[in-house]
Amino acid sequence: MAKNVKVLFFIALCPLAISLCSFGHKKSIPSATIKCDSFRSLKKIPEPSDIVFDAQTGSYYIVSDHGMLFECRHDGTIIRKAPEEGQDFEGVEVTDSFVYVSDETPRHIYKYRKSDLSLLKTSRVSWSGAANKAFESIFYNQAKKCFVLIAEAPATIIEFDENFKELDRYPFRYTRDVSGARWHDGFVYIIGGKDATIFKCDPNTYNIIEAYHINAYNPEGIAFDADGNVLITSDDLQRLYFFNHLPIIKRSSK
Amino acid sequence: MKKLVLFSALAITAATASYGQSEFSEFTDNPSAFTISSDKNTLELGGRMSFYYENRFLKSGETNLKHNGFDVKDMDLDIIGNMASKFTYEVHYSLVDMVTAAATQNTAAPTSPGFKAAYIQYNGFPVKIKLGYDKVPFSQSSIMHEHETPFWSHPGLTGGDYFSRRDIGLTLNARLLKNMINLYAGAYSGMGETFFEYGNDESGRFEYVARAEFSFPGKMNYNEIDEENTPTPHFRIGANIRYKDKTQPTGSSISQYPDALGTYGLSLINGKTTVYGIDAIVKFKGLSATFERDVVNLKPASANDPIFEGTTAAVNGGKVNAGGFITDLNYDYEKWKSVLSVGYQSLNPNDLIAGHEEWLTIGYAYKVSGFNSVAKIEYYVPTLEDKTSDPLKYTGQIRVGYQVVF
Q1: What number does CATH give the domain B48-73+133-405?
Q2: What is the ipTM of this complex?
Q3: What are B121-145's pLDDT values in tens digits?
Q4: B269-281: per-residue pLDDT in tens?
Q5: Is B370 in contact with A176 (Cβ distance < 8 A)?
Q6: How far is CA A52 from the centre of its chain?
Q7: CA distance B371 to B48
Q8: B168-183 as b/e: b if 16+ CB within 10 A
Q9: Poorest-confidence range of A177-181, B82-86, B207-211?
Q10: Inter-CA distances, A44 with A22, A71, A80, A239, B38, Å
């Protein structure tokens, strides 16, 4: 039995020993924790995976894991649905006249007309990683005038031109996975899904400026409304979370 | 046949929405896999390899040290395909089982046939329809993947000794109420993992399995560890039952399927078997706790069946019960990339024999890259030995090794 006690003691010490060895001097990122103001259940949108705000019309576009594109009001009620469906819609972006959707499993980008939500064009993009670890997000980077798709894991930022020809790629090592991303007011906001964190990033380098830990389970998509308030979709809970503005984080002086 | 048509119709009528691939696949969260796509069809290639060093602390007088050395846990290859026609297929090979079977002429591990999954599934209806060989929808612990925990194997209760974990057959699955209710029903060969050795038995009857789950506040996957640091309590409760009548025709004997009887003779009997159980899991801020209770009720057709252990009908009442409960407590601390787990189980393989056994298992995992690249150490010790039903030659066992999912 003495041997057993020694083994138990050894196992108990493992976490401490390994973690002490692994401590490094990680760069400190200003961060804050924010709590959702409210949430609403999206009963008629199965497994909502991304959301984007259309400043022209004041409505929102939401995509579903079941390959469906919806136009919705602020409270999530459906205005209309695109007739053309795909397999696994994970990202959505809106420009002046078009809605772009990332279909993760087949690696397709669908371009819909905003006027009638008819499918205009399908582009293929490449990601050789796991079938359900591909592009969970799509946004237009106005600073670099390019589309950006981010592979979920290993998290990789890939820039594309307007015909979805690859331009450049950047590894994003700050989080275990990326489940959503959005351009807003001169910055790129990236969601670490497993880490439930919104990263505010430089639009040119994608280096992290600030991090916001959120109390939303399984965050998948992010949008900013006309006032800069944050909306987060959760596919497993089929919810739309409403947050206030992201706060300004005070830097500690050294 | 009437029963199968009936529950198929009921499930289809009840369901409102359900899409996606098999929920039991062990390769749905594998960022290192490779995907080939052609138009709307995709093919994903992945696998898992793991090895450990095992050391048993033998009782005095025991001299056989065969369990003190290196061993292969997994050498798996997996192919998952998604077709534009809404079919999904998966073939999950266990190469180490295949090699072992070939080298030993299928005598070393008859319940490890080399396949862990081989099925097609249609996702185009509100009810997913799966045909082929896969885990049966029974027992949360059996369905969950042990490679995504610090432990190296499933508990004794749900590892295959008390009831089969996999079988060939038809599975229907529907999710309701924002995916919070999850229902399964299926019909299987009843031969479990030994189907590839024997095919169907002479009774010609199916085993029927049904499972119902409720999770709140939303859908929960079959991962035991709370790697997502769930911000609000998230739980699931489940109940399941399975039944088979394998009473053999006159002149036939169950002894012609020796490997199908299992370690304690519970897996296949000449008679009726009902297994029922309940289970639960809760996750919150890195902590997760599980509980499961399963009862095996056996009613042999013959009063002289060996499983009665020579007891009279007045004593055994024509039935034998087995089963037990298991519970785990886990803590995932992402800052240290660490998971610490403690498991406890209480088992009784035959209620006609006095005594039962209890086990304590402690495991630690250091996740270099999640459970896809992880070092694991596990120690388990019998805290109460059943010296009649399951005498042991050791007082504890340690396994330490490394696992890579690709």
Answers
A1: 2.40.160.10
A2: 0.83
A3: 999 899 999 999 999 999 999 999 9
A4: 999 999 999 999 9
A5: yes
A6: 11
A7: 11
A8: bbbbbbbbbebbbbbb
A9: B82-86
A10: 46, 12, 12, 11, 32
Report helix, strand and coil shares of chain A as percent, to nearest 5.
10, 45, 45
pLDDT confidence band for A19 (50 / 70 / 90): low
One-letter identity of residue A53:
F
Q: Which residues of A touch B16 (CB under 8 A)?
A: none
Considering only the top CATH level, what class is A31-243?
A: mainly beta
**Which residue among B32, B44, B398 places its CB closest to the CB of A131?**
B44
Tell if the CB–CB gap between B57 and A4 is shorter than 8 Å.
yes
The answer to whether the Cβ–Cβ distance between B364 and A15 falls below 8 Å is yes
The mean pLDDT value for B44-69 works out to: 93
Residues in chain B with CB shorter than 8 Å from the CB of A65 are 19-20
Residue of A236, A240, A241 to mutate when probing chain B, most B C-beta within 10 A: A236
Q: Is the CB of residue B395 less than 8 Å away from at least one CB of chain A? A: yes
Q: Which residues of B touch A41 (CB under 8 A)?
A: 178
Place of tokens 């590839």: B196
**At B158, is the secondary structure helix, strand, or coil?**
helix
| Mean pLDDT over each residue of chain A, to the nearest integer | 90
Is the model's pLDDT at B10 over the cut of 50? no
Q: Which among A91, A90, A99 has a CA at the least distance from the CA of A57? A: A99
Predicted TM-score of the model (pTM): 0.89
Closest Cα in chain B, distance from residue A207 (Å): 21
Domain ranges of chain A: 31-243
Beta bridge partners of B90: B80, B119
Residue ranges of alpha helices (H) inside B131-181 are 140-143
- Asked if B60 is an interface residue toward chain A (Cβ–Cβ < 8 A), one would say no
Kindly report whether the peptide bond that precedes residue A154 is cis, defined as omega within 30 degrees of 0. yes
SS3 A33: strand
Contact across the interface for A107 and B37, Cβ inside 8 Å: yes
Beta strands in B83-165 (DSSP E): 87-94, 115-122, 128-135
- Looking at this protein, which amino acid is placed at residue B122? Y
